[in-house]
């Protein structure tokens, strides 16, 4: 899970504006249902949780299940009342967490 | 919120089966470019036009398009020193955005040194082994497909412009012969599907002209980028034939010939297909 996540949101927004946030992260999302060439089950390894906070407050989170495709794409809306920082976190089955941040300013 | 589910593909193909009766309407809307005189088609149409609007939307949005994960990975590798010469791709080629513009649209290309055509994957490995003294990347490896995608992406929107004359012409003829030769238990040629029957519904898919302007292409089925010769292998395997080997002379000739069948189409790499 070394690749940088891809995130898209506006650089600035009007106070109270609802903005769209798009995220895409590189991950195999191995479902645990497949077998390898020798017939042995391939252990499950997915991103099981995604969270987004704005200035420390939760904005959006979700649990991901094994049926979700590789390279999960998550899109949601958020209301922006102040300038600040969005923090994103993707939790892997192996316990590792990939994080990223994006700043947003208020339009004058 | 929206999340992409693997199982949606199943639903999507069920929906497509139901909508097969509506094919005519869709066909009329498929936009293409006029073919040059003496070409096999009147209108050359990208595989993009045969995909659902959902699949097209995925390709159209550079953030959603999962192929860009590869473009970004390879952009880093481009600058990374590797091999005995202590060089990166950038040491010799500078900014890919400038020096690689148009390169991918003109592949495969004649190599004086090797006295044969080379494609992008082969050229990248020639650079690695000869110019960098680094290990070649295996065909289908993430590294090779990522870099091929990155280089070809620098030609996005530019017309496919392969040269087929001069020393290339025997290769072109060889590719054409392969294209029209029936193979496998099903006894079908590339042309049986992609020339005679494009626009029809088959194998849970709308048959396209089998164009190569989007390669490497992110296949939703595989959930990864697929290089062109792997697609060729797949099409031959599906007619229960014995495919040629990736990067073989046969597939190189075929790559050249099929690129000509799509001459003038804009490069779409990284495209998204079923």
Automatic annotation (TrEMBL), chain A:
InterPro entries: Ig-like_fold, Ig_E-set, SoxZ, SoxZ_dom
Top-rank taxon, per record: Bacteria
Ranges where the Sulphur oxidation protein SoxZ domain occurs: 7-101
Protein name according to UniProt: Thiosulfate oxidation carrier complex protein SoxZ
UniProtKB/TrEMBL annotation, chain B:
Keyword Heme: yes
InterPro entries: Cyt_c-like_dom, Cyt_c-like_dom_sf, SoxA
Gene: soxA
Location relative to the cell: Periplasm
Signal peptide stretch: 1-22
Pfam families: SoxA-TsdA_cyt-c
Stretches assigned to the Cytochrome c domain: 74-160
EC code: 2.8.5.2
Reactions catalysed, as given in the entry: S-sulfanyl-L-cysteinyl-[SoxY protein] + thiosulfate + 2 Fe(III)-[cytochrome c] = S-(2-sulfodisulfanyl)-L-cysteinyl-[SoxY protein] + 2 Fe(II)-[cytochrome c] + 2 H(+); L-cysteinyl-[SoxY protein] + thiosulfate + 2 Fe(III)-[cytochrome c] = S-sulfosulfanyl-L-cysteinyl-[SoxY protein] + 2 Fe(II)-[cytochrome c] + 2 H(+)
Protein name: SoxAX cytochrome complex subunit A
